[in-house]
Amino acid sequence: MRKTRTLALCFFPLLVSLLAAGCGGSGPDLAPVEGRVTLDGKPLPGARVEFDPDTELVAYGKSSSSTSYGTTDSGGRYQLKYTGEQDGAMVGKHLVRISTRNMTVDAEGKEVLVPEQLPTKYNVKSELTAEVKPGSNKIDFPLTIESSPGGNE
Questions:
Q1: CATH 2.40.240.20 corresponds to the domain 28-143
Q2: In tens digits, what is the pLDDT along the chain, a chain of 153 residues?
Q3: pTM for this one?
Q4: How far is CA 102 from the centre of its chain?
Q5: Where are the domains of the chain?
């Protein structure tokens, strides 16, 4: 009886680690994504870039639907984060949204809304898509403002 108990105690940690490895998985397949956003050929600073995984992947349980995000620097460059600690985006197709609308604090310490500079086809009604592939990804977005009437729609 004592030998059986000793054997069980020796193999218990191994069994627990094997079960834990099989249950949680290693998380989603992520790949680094960086790029540059320009507006009419000029860098677009302060824009929020979001990559939303394809909704079909979410429906089939192959995606947790976590959005990756980044903000452009003064040169229009961005780098995506999946979470606060993890860089990148899920491998696969994404709907991309780019927006300049945000809140800032003015000289008097009051919160002020910075209005959207981009047409809705880049954010609210986005027509932008991208595919993240395994390995490093460089995905640029050369945006333009249409000069036609109602170009901001």
A1: no
A2: 555 444 444 444 444 343 444 444 556 799 999 999 999 999 999 999 999 998 654 444 444 568 999 999 999 999 999 988 899 999 999 999 999 998 888 899 999 888 999 999 999 999 999 999 999 999 999 999 975 444 444
A3: 0.72
A4: 18
A5: 28-143
